[in-house]
Amino acid sequence: MVYRGFKANSEQRLLSLFSEFYDNLGPNIEQTLLGATGFVTMDPVNVEAILSSRFNDIGFGPRRNSFWAFLGDGIFTRDGVPWKHSRELLRRQFVRMQYQSLEAFNEHVDNLVEAIRRAPDIIDLQPIFFRYTLDTKTALIFNQGT
């Protein structure tokens, strides 16, 4: 499985491989790698439980450092009180906003696609997606771009 993952990634078809796994194995997959057992899910009920309703039952533990290197210090890499604080900040923003259409995103998606199109063959997506997120949230919260 690891070999197939690396091979698919090098051929830029990793998402297709994951889709194949879920199609063949179902929405919840148990996997063991180097003696450690983990679970992967795309079941909306489980995702909701992990990110919200049963968050206190599930923690990052020693995996936090691995995720932190990729995602940084934010809501997706926090546990306990810091996570609750980050989530509450975000929840208040989303409760205030009424997304009646996707028009608010059009300009920012166009800018995102153009930035990716102009990029060289090897691309660092993190600053591009950071800028997209900043532009979109600023526009939605303050009704203006950055």
Describe this structure in words.
With 146 residues, the chain is mainly alpha-helical. The chain has three domains: 1-35, no CATH class; 43-96, no CATH class; 99-146, no CATH class. The chain has seven helices and two strands. A two-stranded antiparallel ribbon has the order 1-2. Strand 1 and strand 2 (36-41) form a beta hairpin. Helix 1 runs antiparallel to helix 2. It is globular and about 50 Å long. Pfam families: p450. It comes from Rhinocladiella mackenziei CBS 650.93.
Please give a quick description of this structure.
This protein has 146 residues and is mainly alpha-helical. It contains 7 helices and 2 strands.
Order of helices and strands: HHEEHHHHH
Largest sheet: 2 strands, antiparallel
In terms of per-residue confidence, which ranges show pLDDT below 50 for 5 or more consecutive residues? none
* C-alpha termini separation: 43 Å
- The quaternary organization reads as single chain
- SS class: mainly alpha
Strand numbers in spatial order across the main sheet: 1-2
How many β-strand runs?
2
Name the shape in a single word: globular
Domains, number? 3
> What is the average per-residue confidence, as pLDDT, rounded to a whole number?
80
What Rg is obtained from the alpha carbons, in whole angstroms?
18 Å
- SS field, number of helical segments: 7
Helix content: 55-70%
Portion of residues in beta strands equals 5-15%
Family: Belongs to the cytochrome P450 family.
Cofactor: heme
GO molecular function, one term: heme binding
Protein name: Cytochrome P450 alkane hydroxylase
